Amino acid sequence: MAAVIYYINYLLNCYLYKSLPMKSILLLAICLFTSGVSFSQNFPKGTLKYEITYDYFFQVNKEDLMGTQTEETVLKIAKDYSIYSSVNNIKLMELTNDLKQSGIMPEREAIPNTRLNYTVTKNFKNNEMMYSEWIKGDTYMYNQTLDKFNWKLEEGQREILGYKCKKATTQFAGRDYIAWYAPGINVTDGPYKFHGLPGLILSLYDTNNYYQFNAINIKNSKSFFDTAIIAAKPIFLSKADYATLKKNYRVKPSSILNTGGIAFPKEFNDRADQRAKERLKYENNPLEIND
Questions:
Q1: How far apart are CA 289 and CA 167, in angstroms?
Q2: Could you tell me which of 103, 148, 158, 99 has the C-alpha nearest to residue 128?
Q3: Which residues sit opposite 140 in a β-bridge?
Q4: pLDDT digits (tens, 9 = 90+) for 42-89
Q5: In this structure, what are the phi and psi dihedrals at residue 55, rounded to the nearest 5 degrees?
Q6: Band of residue 178 on the pLDDT scale cut at 50, 70, 90
């Protein structure tokens, strides 16, 4: 099944912006759902213990202070695993699953927007991390062992959301980070790929303050969560091949646009390449400097 998530999101956007008549949208939806191929994978699942919402601040261009952005992200923690993504990305995946099962379009105002189309799943039982990202039509995924962080415990205390936090520093993917973790919460996890401190990370930022993760809400949870919410059939790659794919996409985005079984017109590809190149040239400050 190629590019299922692309077509579902396409339908959702057509519905949201009224760019196609409802009859056409429903016909496309029927074709999609009747031609889909089922997919199953041993994704971790289980009852959650905590759900932590972070205010994620990021500056995609080093020189443009006015170009900073924020988005709410969430870390869902169970006994043996956790999953981290943007709040809206998880909502979109849930809507996608509901749409695939029911064929009923959600209300337009219920369709979220997000700039963060990735999820990070840590499987502590197997010492593995699964990174998945939706890129122009497909979900690409790679697995690896959990990153090892050389944390240095520092002097200093701070209170965050009523929890006494201690300071730690580390380096990751070309950046120096400061973290504030809560020893009172017996969880060795944190936002994004970060983990390994003797307590939950409630605040994390690089020393240039280009990227910041600040907890704004912590709640106990007993809800069941299945990380197979990653809705599309993933294309599994090695981490090295994923890095190559991303680099190629930056050079020629249309090379990925045309992998979903639809041949787009040359004019469409050229415009997509030009717009993407301009955007990606502006976005010169990635979260991970070193792949």
A1: 24
A2: 148
A3: 133, 235
A4: 788 999 999 999 999 999 999 888 878 999 999 999 999 999 999 998
A5: -85, 110
A6: very high
